[in-house]
Each structure stands twice: as C-alpha cells, then as structure tokens.
Design a protein that fits this description.
This is Centromere protein X. Keywords: DNA damage, DNA repair, DNA-binding, Nucleus. The protein is mainly alpha-helical and 87 residues long. The chain has a single domain, classed as Histone, subunit A (Orthogonal Bundle). It has three helices and no strands. It is elongated, with a radius of gyration of 16 Å.
Length: 87
C-alpha cells in the first residue's frame, strides 16, 4: 500500500534493544542471550514498515467511511488483516 506521508517512521536501534531487554526480563529469558547489531537493526526496519502500513491502512479505512480523522476504531478494524499479512 502506498504511503500517505513523505515522512517515514523511524525507530532507533537503541530503542529496539531496550525493548528487547525489557522483554527478556519480563519473560525470564536467559540473560546471556543477546541480539546482534544487525538483528536489532532488522527489527527496527520491520517495526518501521509495520507502523507505516498500519497508518496507511487506518487512513484508507477512515476515508472509506467518509471520515477526515483517524481514530482507534479505524486501527482496530485494520489490525487483524495487517497481523495476518505480516505473518
């Protein structure tokens, strides 16, 4: 789906690394397991594309309903198919 915005969402690799570390703590994953720089970079890239696609689909959903503002209901409507498409 084409982007509605010329600006792209960006996630810093450091932010992704922090999320990974928090997730390891939450799930009691072995502390010696680490993500490589390339692994964190790839996750940041995937997160950017996921969020960009979610925004585009939510905008399209709002437009199809004649709305000029995207709300949480538009995101809820597009999320199931988006999750399937990203699996």
């Amino acid at each position: 789906m084409a982007s509605h915005s010329s600006e792209k969402v960006r996630f810093k690799e450091a932010t992704i690394r922090q999320l990974l570390e928090l997730n390891k703590e939450k799930r009691a994953i072995d502390k010696t397991v680490k993500f490589s720089f390339d692994g964190a970079k790839l996750l940041a890239h995937l997160a950017r594309h996921f969020v960009d696609e979610a925004v585009c689909r939510a905008v399209a959903q709002a437009e199809s309903e004649g709305q000029t503002e995207v709300d949480v209901d538009h995101l809820r409507k597009v999320l199931p198919q988006l999750m399937l498409d990203f699996t």
